Structures are given as structure tokens and as C-alpha cells.
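Data availability (excerpt). The following record was deposited with the supplementary files.
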Amino acid sequence: MNIHKLARTTPASRALIASRRAAGFRESVVAEQLGIDRKTVRKWTRRQRSEGTAGLRDRSSRPATSPTALDSAWRDAVLALRRLRFTQSQIAQVLKLSPSRTQRVVAAVGLGKLSALEPPVPDNRYERSQPGELVHVDTKKLGRFFQPGHRVTGDRSDARLRGFKGWEFLHVAIDDRTRLAYAELLIDEKGATCAGFLQRAAAFFSRHGIRRIERVMSDNGSPYISTDFREAVAVLGARHIRTRPYTPRTNGKAERFIQTMLRLWAYVRPYNSSPQTSAPLLSPPGSSGTTASGPTAHFKTAPPSTPSRSYDGTTSWEITARARAACAASRASRG
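Predicted structure:
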């Protein structure tokens, strides 16, 4: 039973009310002890006597009778037209019903949206056969902070640093075949910034054996449809693939990798400030973690020239998986 968060009584306290009344306590005394009205004491005492323990549970708020409810034949007609892909306004016009009543009927069976009539989309799991055939890119906006938030301290009066807050943007790139991933924490997600990140990601992949990137997949965000990003993809000699609007599952490897980063790094424990969050990530080579698809990876420290979580530059870290072995096997298979 889902009890309302503001409910003054529960089945246990209602049983206590009935037991105290049965013990001879007066209504006014029981009401004062439990901080409730005398009518409430009288109601639960009466229900317990007439219905037993079952009477102490919440009842449905639905009325016993609904004289104005729509007849079953009319409901069947509404649903039949809905399954013929009629809109709610068209159904109301054809059957001479009010739009609100039509909406209630179709929503009650889960057909409030026409998309509910479509069959569920089957899982489309894919993996490219060669490293570099497809690289997924995506971004995630993270809040910048300089002291623990109210979830840690319990204090919401955070006005003294209000003018110094902002956002940071986690940019990720992951190879579809090897799951070799590269990420940077940048100050924005503009087209030029995403283009620069793609160039550095390509250089990182090249150092680990992926010499050429054939395709780059992204969503339809404004930085990815910009001229700067388009030119960066052209410089790599790659083809830019954009996902279908409102279909993030197409770019699921990047989405899953971002969730892994959030769980294993950004939100794994409380941090005192934004600069401190990069400390667990910059672990010595050999410490294991998890990539978007699950296989073991190794975290490497960021290049010495890159400051740790600097707000006037970029912060990067490299996650090395089984890329070199996969690339060597790929070259051997090609002969």
C-alpha cells in the first residue's frame, strides 16, 4: 500500500487507536495523544469493529457508482477508431463526444499517444568489424562547484558562491570495435570546441594503432551540425553520421560510456570541489575500470602538459582497452 507522505495515520497507528478505545480510553484522550481529530478516532474505531483488520487499510477514492460514465459500447467504438489511427479530436468529432471524455478513454488503456500503436522497436545491437570504422562522440554537461552541495552538507543556503558557478562539459569518443575511449573535460560544447576535441581524439586513437577513422557518429546537437565540426570530420577523411532525432539508442555506446563515467568517477563519492573530482580518475596505469560495453580497461594519467581539471584549458585522460591487440589482429587478417 502506498501511503501518502502527509498522512497522519497508518494501519499500525489506526490499530493503536482502536485498541486504546477498546481499553476504555475516551475519544478526546486518544485524539490528544495521537494529535488527530476526534472524528478520526471515531472513524477508525468503527471500521475496526465492523470490518476487522482489513478495515484499517486505505480505500480507493473511486466512487461506488458513476452514473455519467461512458457505456462499454461507446468505449469500444472510441478504441476501435483509435486503433485505426484516428486522432482524439477526430474521434470526438465523429462520435459527438467531448475531447476530455475521449482523452480519458484512450488514456485508460495506454493509447494516449499514437506512437503506442506502433510495435516495439527490436534491439538493434551492432559492432563494426574493424577498428576505426565507426567512432561515437557525445557530451555531458556537469555542474561546476567549489564546496559540497546540500546533499552532502544538508545546508541549502549556498548564496556566497552563487556568482562563481557554471558548467563543465564532458566530451567522450569511443571506437565501436575496440571500445577504446578518450575523454576530455572542456569549458563549453561549441562547434569549435567539439572540432578540436575530435582532432585530439583522432590523434589519441592513432597513437594506439587506429590510424584512420572512417565514420563519426553523433547526435543532432548544434555543435555537431556546425561548420567547424563538419570541417574537422572532412580533415580526417571520415563521413559524418547523425542519429535519428530523439533516438539516443543509436549512439548507445557513447551514452553508456558517459553513464559509466558518472557512476565510477563523477558521482562515486562526495567531492569538496570540482578540481578534486579528477583525482580518482588520474590513477596509475594498471588500475582497472569498466568501459561502455563491460570489458576491463586501464586508466592512464593525463599528459603532463594538461592541467588537472583546469577551467582555463582542457583536462584529458585516456582509457586504454584492448585496442593495440585488436588493431594488430586486424592488420594480420588483412594480410
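Summary of structural features: Residues 31 and 40 are 8 Å apart (CA to CA).
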